Amino acid sequence: MHKDESDVHERLAQYAEQYEVVRKLHDVPPYVTYEVRVDGKRAVCKRAGSDEGNPAMEARAMQFLEANTSVPVPHVLGVGNDYFVAEWKNEIPEDGSLNEAGARTLGAGLATLHEETSFESSGFLESRDGELALDVRGTWADMLTAIVGGWCNDLAVSRFEEAGESVLSFVREHEDAFTAISEPALVHGDYQPENILFEGESVVAVVDWEFCFVGAGEFDLCRADREFFDWYTVSESDDLRGSIREGYESVRTLPPAFDGRRHVYRSILKLDPMRFFEMRKGQVGDANEVAESMCAFIRDELELAREKL
């Protein structure tokens, strides 16, 4: 038995009499995920693969959502400092073949998450004393500065350093536009096809809450827009983009000046893949050409934001 599998056995033995490690599902730092059986039932065990992983926070977030909202999440069976076990979901993820009705459903579901969660401040989430707790960062402008600043640190001394600094400077210069967002909500942070499980046309589970935090729900909508329409091939994407926003706004009104901030969010989200570009540049053809197109995208989006804010 490999050591990592032995570690899973030790965690399962803490609360289950009968258990089995079936197979490794994912091994993407800083997490390792396994299919397991607990007391005869299929389940998932997610554990930290390094100190950067925080599965306990993810588990507490799902417990919080199950207890306080109508958002469908897997039921948590057990949680420790560096792992959790949750029920298995048999339903299939969204495969990118959306229609307009499905896009509206996804948008409405995301808005429901934001509408049914409310916090006094933006911030990062953590597990504290067995509960979901907030590491307060202040206004949405403060939180956004913390996020972008962290990503800029990752981009330091790289071909994207200037692009990152331009985004950070823009956020700081337009702080008032983000401080105006006064209703912090729980943000999923990775609302994408693989994390939305369907049964027929109904969403029955939203999974992978490892990136969740508290901030502006509109940021989540922009990330979903990118995940569904920029990184996946879908037909009639313009109509579908409108449908997911239409579904969102059927539940929750977007704040004034969203269309200006949207361009800033798009530029921020472009920084994310830049952080891993050097590791993956062999997969993108002409790396220099792709890198320049990414930087040009940020320049264009910030210019559009400047015109609207």
Using the CA coordinates, give the radius of gyration.
Answer: 20 Å
**Order of strands across the widest beta sheet?**
1-2-3-5-4
> In terms of structural class, how would the helical and strand content be classed?
alpha+beta
Biggest sheet descriptor: 5 strands, antiparallel
CATH superfamily of the largest domain: Aminoglycoside phosphotransferase (APH), C-terminal lobe
Overall number of domains: 2
Q: Would you give the CATH topology of the largest domain?
A: Aminoglycoside 3'-phosphotransferase, Chain: A, domain 2
Instruction: Give the topology string: H per helix, E per strand.
Output: HEEEHEEEHEEHHHEEEEHHHHH
Portion in helices = 40-55%
Overall spatial form? globular
Task: Write up this protein.
The protein is of the alpha+beta class. It folds into two domains: 3-88, Phosphorylase Kinase, domain 1 (2-Layer Sandwich); 93-308, Aminoglycoside phosphotransferase (APH), C-terminal lobe (Aminoglycoside 3'-phosphotransferase, Chain: A, domain 2), CATH 3.90.1200. It is built from eleven helices and twelve strands. The chain has helices at residues 3-12, 55-68, 100-115, 140-155, 161-173, 175-179, 217-229, 237-249, 258-274, 277-280, 287-308, and strands spanning 19-28, 31-38, 41-48, 76-80, 83-87, 92-93, 122-128, 131-138, 185-187, 196-199, 202-206, 213-215. The strands form three sheets. A five-stranded antiparallel sheet has the order 1-2-3-5-4, with helices on both faces. A four-stranded antiparallel sheet has the order 8-7-12-9. Helix 5 packs parallel to helix 11. The radius of gyration is 20 Å and the shape is globular. The termini are far apart.
